[in-house]
Amino acid sequence: EKGGYATFMEKEIHDQPHAVRDTLLGRTDEEGRLTLDELRIPEEKLREIDRITIVACGTAAYAGMVAKYAIERWTRIPVEVSLAHEFRYCDPIVDERTLVVSISQSGETMDTLMAVKHARELGALTISICNTHGSTIPRESDAVLYTHAGPEIAVASTKAFLAQITASYILGLYLAQLRGGTYVDDIKAVLKELAEVPGKIETVLERMGRVKEIAGFMADTRAVLFLGRHVGYPVALEGALKLKELAYIHAEGFAAGELKHGPIALIEPGQPVFVVVPSPSSEHGLHGKVVSNIQEIRARGARTLVIAEDGDEAVVPFSDEVIRVPATAPLLAPLLTVVPLQVFALWLSTAKGLDVDQPRNLAKSVTVE
Ligand code: BG6
Q: Which Gene Ontology cellular component terms are annotated (predicted)?
């Protein structure tokens, strides 16, 4: 059942190309237009929405943060990400023109379910992005967009995360197509890039030997920091979460731009820092700004573990380790850059002799508030 792997988590990490491919499957017609029959909400209603709120917990909330960048970019609809357990208690601004998108692997997370119920009471349209057929959250929502990651057994989420991000891209592109606007011509180009992602995840997985080796030497590490910017920021948060969950190591993710506003004080000689570097093709010179961050922390003695695109030579002089991922569209990069961080957490947990699939104090789905 573990497909020859020692743990479910390792198997599920290797399932990721399939999880993304299967979640993309059957979403377009012969002309390459997106068709989402699962979304049983009239198109006119979806055309009228003027704000989107994403509600989720844990890893699913980080998928929501990635989704925000993509959906806003493609639709120009303002998107807010709200931790589901905060949503109900902050007097949320929601009405019948608000689309509330819940993201949940299990479909049973009580905090997320209560947020969805509250949103419906306030008159919002609700769509559930969910991995579990027939679960409660999709039943309580107006519509559902299923992720096809297959059953996820390990407590720490991996393949469901990639499938959630994929499904939110699909939703964003679908809304862009429906509403017309400037982005529509580019939808096919994004879909083409997305179709190439599963093969690129395979490539990343083939290269993970060195990450396993690095993790194997780090069992005594007390703290690890993660930096990322733009869509790399939620990836940094997810990398840190994986390490807390699996290896019980103090780990923090930061927006790289925040570094000089505080976190740089944490840097001392030998401190390991993962940096998720934006593609050199990113807009607004983001790549160069993150390369400067690497330079700054390296100058203070940090041990820099850098995740960078193939061919990005600018990072090399400041990196103790460069972990390479294939090039893709900047908004899609999280589907590749998070993989080494999952693999790192898996092998560090293993190096510490911990239970990878059943970390202490955690449950796969939390059905109490
Ligand atoms: C947590 C799980 O308690 O719930 C996380 O340990 C998960 O892995 C989070 O991300 C949300 O779960 P779900 O099923 O709603 O996606």
A: cytosol
Nearest-angstrom CA–CA distance, 188 and 328? 15
Mean of the pLDDT values across residues 73-78?
A: 95
pLDDT at 249: 95
pLDDT band at 366 (very low <50, low <70, confident <90, very high): confident
pLDDT of residue 181 exceeding 80, the answer is no
* pTM score: 0.97
Distance CA 15, CA 3 (A): 10
Distance 226 CA to ligand 1 centre (A): 21
**For tokens 């990113």, what's the residue?**
282
Q: Single out the residue of 223, 227, 246 nearest to residue 237, CA to CA.
A: 227
Cα–Cα distance measured from residue 195 to residue 332, given in angstroms and rounded to the nearest whole number: 11
Q: Ligand 1 centroid vs 60 CA: distance in angstroms?
A: 7
364 is catalytic: yes
Closest Cα partner for 38 from 48, 27, 47? 27
d(CA 27, CA 172): 13
213-225 residue pLDDT tens: 999 999 999 999 9
Nearest residue (by CA) to ligand 1, atom 6, is: 364
- The whole-angstrom separation of Cα 2 and Cα 126 is 35
Residues 233-258, buried b or exposed e (16+ Cβ, 10 A)? bbbbbbbbbbbbbbbebebbbbbbee
Strand segments, DSSP code E, in the chain are 51-56, 79-83, 98-104, 125-130, 143-146, 223-228, 250-255, 272-276, 303-309, 321-325
